[in-house]
Design brief:
By secondary structure, the protein is of the alpha/beta class. It is built from 14 helices and 7 strands. Strand 2 (21-22) and strand 3 form a beta hairpin. The longest helix is centred in the middle third of the chain and has 16 residues, at 136-151. The chain is globular and about 55 Å long.
Length: 273
């Protein structure tokens, strides 16, 4: 599958969805962009997004505290919408070690302790994606994301959405959108796995170091995931959960996000050719 990567200096994991198959149609080029955070975007990247893609709206799925500590660079002419899929209290509600949770909130826990806490609590697992999709905050964020797409005229330019690494919350938004547009599951998974591009050496070193310590495979995978990697089973678990619970991904969109079939048909008309 052709990689639709966009070279944006200072922005990681940027690509557009244009050209992907969508049933008997094709996703429209130049109007749907997913990426990592924009806080380190260089002037050249801002110029590309502003002039070449004419970005109309930036959707930021990050947590409030993370977002406020590293605000996006502004794109001239673009609106900016904050839609946190999850907040810190949502994570901490799943943490069993209250002492460690308090340390985490106070900022006194080191990064390794935070990762260990997340792993032991089951957060660094495929169930994280299910929490994003089925949590009240996540459902509200993704529902509004589609309302934005429905309000947007793609003839005037692109919509860009991101989280931190552009792989998890942004990846789920992409999965939902491509499902509506009619893209097959294999293409959706291949797009998701593109988030590993350029990280092979880093992830390989993590695996080697962890194996030398006798760490179990599940924890090695969790550490790689926390370091920016993605794994097919995370996304397939999310899709399978929606299919089992709602009959199909679009059943989730209807039952939980309030999209109607006319809404989804309008999205297909706007964003495929």
């Amino acid at each position: 599958m052709k990689a639709n990567t966009i070279n944006l200096p200072g922005v990681l994991n940027a690509r557009e969805l244009g050209g992907y198959p969508a049933g008997n149609r094709t996703v429209r080029s130049g109007v749907l962009i997913r990426s990592g955070v924009l806080n380190k975007a260089e002037p050249g990247a801002i110029d590309i997004l502003s002039t070449e893609y004419r970005v109309q709206t930036v959707v930021d799925f990050r947590m409030s505290g993370v977002r406020d500590g590293a605000p996006d660079k502004e794109i001239p002419g673009a609106g900016y919408i904050r839609l946190p899929v999850v907040e810190m209290e949502d994570y901490l509600s799943m943490v069993k070690d209250l002492k460690l949770a308090k340390q985490f909130m106070s900022g006194n826990a080191d990064q390794r302790a935070m990762i260990d806490m997340a792993y032991e609590s089951g957060l660094l697992s495929p169930d994280m994606y299910v929490m994003f999709l089925l949590g009240d905050r996540g459902k509200k964020a993704y529902a509004e994301f589609f309302r934005i797409l429905l309000r947007t005229d793609p003839g005037r330019g692109a919509v860009l959405w991101h989280c931190v690494d552009g792989k998890d919350r942004a990846g789920l938004a992409t999965m939902l959108l491509l499902s509506i547009l009619g893209t097959d599951k294999q293409t959706i998974i291949e797009d998701y796995l593109m988030s590993n591009s350029g990280k092979e050496e880093k992830l390989g070193k993590i695996r080697k170091d962890c194996e030398s310590l006798g760490m179990p495979p599940e924890k090695i995978e969790a550490l790689q995931f926390a370091s920016g990697g993605v794994f097919e089973r995370y996304m397939t678990h999310a899709i399978d959960t929606l299919e089992n619970k709602y009959g199909c991904v679009c059943g989730y969109l209807t039952d939980e996000l309030g999209l109607t079939e006319p809404d989804m048909e309008q999205l297909r008309e706007r964003y495929t050719v």
